[in-house]
Write a structure and sequence with these properties.
16-stranded antiparallel beta barrel, single chain, mainly beta, Porin, about 400 residues, globular
Length: about 400
């Protein structure tokens, strides 16, 4: 049976290739790369379409994607797993312009060699006017900036920000719908998004981490079909000389408080607020990217204080080009030095009994060197130094080590 399936698959592929070859003989523009226009002013909300795609002749579908390959050698308090080689993710994009004002885009991510396969985005956009558009499907909730603008080749660091992945649930997407739009005025660009979607569940306080941990909700595949409602909204403004600032909110009930009309528990809510900023300084061309978020969760009184009801954290990236020009037959290479500073506190507050500060916080600094042979490919060498305290504020665990990686669109 397996042999038969393999033969069928090979036959289909051969027919597909033959068809493409025949088409190529009559259409010299069969394969055409459509690159993202990096000179055009755009908001973080535009990241979903601001990617390079490969157009296949006259077919109405465009393809794209990116890959991330890394090596790392990192240890905590002298204990290390040695050399680690990782194919962290390969992401595929499929886009189609159904008509001039109706578009579809999907983003499918394969992580850790295919152990996890996730549909991160699959939505239809219906555009009426620039200020009023409808989006429906699996949407990327616009909390902060990284959640939407997360493609590996856009960043100078092999690791994603800790606050975006271990405090907020990075690449957090849900089935839902909503409105979005943009407008322009006197050198300013304004945008908004407002969505209603599936959301969090009780695993954010009932998980293997033994703390309040929003990313645990990503494991619940049932949220794409049923569950609690999540409201997400963002407004953003951008000036070509100043940069972009965004303010966002995400929240809703996270627990199962009733079933078939029977009240099981009080409604318990989760609220997340975030502010993000990015700018490029003139003359020096220094890029600054920052994000900070606050999390508030209604934790039941029956839970111990290691489950925090308040969290906050964020990061700031500073990237400085030190060389631009032709190198190794590449016309427009860029060599950068960069640094990321991060902080997360998973449990803000003091113990009720003693008044002492509750621990569970983390500091990290990551200097980096990156080389871009093209705008779509980056080679990154990072060093991480990190200190993390436990809930009792004991001597922090110290982590250090090197990462090297390559990330590219294809």
């Amino acid at each position: 049976m397996n042999t038969f399936r393999i033969r069928i698959t090979v036959s289909v592929l051969l027919l597909f290739i033959a068809g493409m070859k025949t088409q190529a003989q009559s259409d010299t523009t069969l394969l055409k790369r459509k690159s993202a226009d990096t000179t055009k002013q755009a908001l973080n909300m535009d990241a979903v379409y601001n990617r390079p795609f490969l157009e296949l002749g006259k077919l109405p579908v465009s393809l794209g994607g990116y890959a991330e390959v890394n090596w790392q050698h990192i240890g905590t308090d002298g204990i290390s797993e040695g050399h680690q080689f990782q194919m962290r993710r390969m992401t595929l994009f499929v886009a189609s312009s159904i008509t001039n004002q109706i578009k579809f885009l999907s983003e499918i991510e394969l992580e850790e060699g295919g152990k996890e396969i996730n549909i991160e985005f699959a939505a239809v956009d219906v555009e009426f006017v620039p200020l009023l558009n409808i989006r429906a499907g699996i949407i990327m909730n616009p909390i902060g900036s990284f959640n939407q603008n997360h493609d590996g080749p856009k960043w100078e660091f092999t690791d994603r920000p800790i606050s975006s992945t271990q405090m907020l649930p990075a690449t957090w997407s849900n089935a839902g719908f909503g409105l979005f739009g943009k407008t322009y005025s006197s050198g300013w660009m304004f945008g908004y998004e407002a969505y209603i979607s599936g959301g969090f569940d009780a695993t954010i306080i009932d998980n293997e981490e033994n703390k309040t941990f929003l990313p645990s909700a990503k494991a619940n595949r049932g949220r794409f079909e049923e569950g609690n409602t999540l409201y997400t909204g963002k407004i953003a403004a951008r000036n070509s000389k100043i940069g972009e600032i965004g303010i966002s909110y995400m929240g809703g009930i996270y627990n199962t408080h009733e079933r078939d009309g029977l009240i099981l528990d009080d409604e318990r809510r989760c609220h997340v607020f975030a502010i993000d900023f990015n700018s490029t300084l003139p003359e020096l061309n220094t890029t600054i990217i920052g994000e900070w978020a606050w999390v508030n969760v209604d934790v039941p009184d029956t839970y111990t204080q290691q489950y925090g009801n308040q969290q906050h954290g964020g990061f700031i990236d500073i990237v400085q080009p030190i060389f631009k020009g032709k190198l190794f037959n590449w016309e427009n290479t860029v060599l950068n030095i960069a640094c990321r500073v991060e902080y997360v506190d998973w449990n803000v507050g003091n113990f009720r009994e003693t008044g002492d500060n509750i621990g569970e916080d983390l500091w990290s600094i990551m200097p980096a060197v990156s080389f871009r042979p093209t705008t779509q490919t980056v080679l990154r060498l990072n060093y991480r130094y990190q200190m993390q305290k436990d809930v009792l504020n004991n001597e922090p665990a110290k982590t250090g080590g090197f990462n090297f990686g390559i990330s590219t669109y294809f």
